[in-house]
Amino acid sequence: MSEFCGTLDNNYLHVALSDSAVGCLRAACQSGAMPGTVIGIPDDLSHGPLDDLQVRRSYFQNLFIQSGARREEACDILASWRCLMAEAGRIQTREVVVWAGENVSETMFLHMFCDWMHVTDIKLSHVNVSESSDQHYVAMWQPSYLAGICNNARELNNAEREHHSSEYRRLCAEKGVLRRWSAGRVATMQSNFYDDLLLSSCTTDWSVAGRVVGLAMSRCDAHNRLSDLFFASRLAALIENGLIEVQKKTGRLFENNIRMSASSPAHESKAWRG
């Protein structure tokens, strides 16, 4: 969990998801253009269990191991969430500002944060970075732009907070691993939903797995960016099911040469309509 950073003005506590988003917001505060303090967590809520943070932590640790990364590379998500909630409740702040665009991970963050803060009477506001652009992630914006739209923060009334909270509880109850944003709502998807996209990024010629994964990432739509860690888990499943072949296995999945197996149906890039 990163330390607080910003001005000495605790009237505003800015919360965000991912190190990149937090970095942009902190730069805005450090410049003096935006008052307040910034805190966040290094998480990706587009996939992984939701209702048990210990299980969620284990899920990501297993993904790191599966991709060939060291176990200690997986951050302590459980500790990060606990720290975020504790600080949001402890700090004497006039307003908590949640930064979230119209994308799967940050929308989930807004849902989750409202649920975890439902017992407090702290004022919650939301800055939607998607309101005037097709760039839907906080980290896609210059700090100067973020400082400029800070005043666009809109207070969430009780009904809106309850809506976000109920959406989080609904998605928890569905116990899915993968989620997708569409038309303003997050839906639970089958874990293999993006397998065709990954297969269409692979050919019958040998290619390094990192490039195949990178190509699949680049083909995700603007509201549903997915990490290389997620695609590594699906790549491992496709290899296990015999749809993708490995030339010579190494310790790190991304460094292996892979190709579509003879038993795999042909998938052209243009066939993907996700």
TrEMBL record:
Source organism (scientific name): Halocynthiibacter halioticoli
Pfam families: DUF1835, DUF3658
Protein name listed in UniProt: DUF1835 domain-containing protein
Start and end residues of each DUF3658 domain: 152-251
The organism's place on the tree of life at top rank: Bacteria
Classification via InterPro entries: DUF1835, DUF3658
DUF1835 domain boundaries: 13-129
